[in-house]
């Protein structure tokens, strides 16, 4: 059973930066495609970024391109989301997501963390 625990959320001023972390247990992270999603109250959960294989198959939502970077540390079994130039519209609860992969194919069930809140406000 894969378990995901996020950390790193908080309050930041517009233009600031935060780094979210996701600790993975129950599976080597290299066997997983890792993603970050976000959700605002009353809204749908939307994907922010995904990495399927190290250095390959990277995806970013248009609204974060050039500002956010997804990465993973296989040795530490962790994934990260570096968020720069934060805007008030980035305020949301951010969720770590994992799904088992076979090459670039995603298989099996979805795993979610509990979420970490990010508030961008002056």
Verbal overview:
0% of the residues lie in helices and 60% in strands. It has strands at 3-7, 10-12, 18-25, 32-39, 46-53, 56-60, 68-73, 78-83, 92-102, 105-112, 116-120. It has 122 residues and is mostly beta strands. The radius of gyration is 14 Å and the shape is globular.
Could you outline the blueprint of secondary structure elements for this entry?
Layout: E1 3-7, E2 10-12, E3 18-25, E4 32-39, E5 46-53, E6 56-60, E7 68-73, E8 78-83, E9 92-102, E10 105-112, E11 116-120
Parallel strand pairs: 2-11
Antiparallel strand pairs: 1-3, 3-8, 4-5, 4-9, 5-6, 7-8, 9-10, 9-11
Main features:
four-stranded antiparallel sheet; mainly beta; globular; seven-stranded mixed sheet; 60% strand; 122 residues
Summarize the structure in short.
The protein has 122 residues and is mainly β.
Structural class: mainly beta
Radius of gyration: 14 Å
Distance between the termini: 40 Å
Instruction: Work out the helicity level.
Output: under 10%
* Average pLDDT level: 95
Identify the overall geometry.
globular
Number of contiguous helices = 0
Q: Estimate what percentage of residues fall within beta strands.
A: over 45%
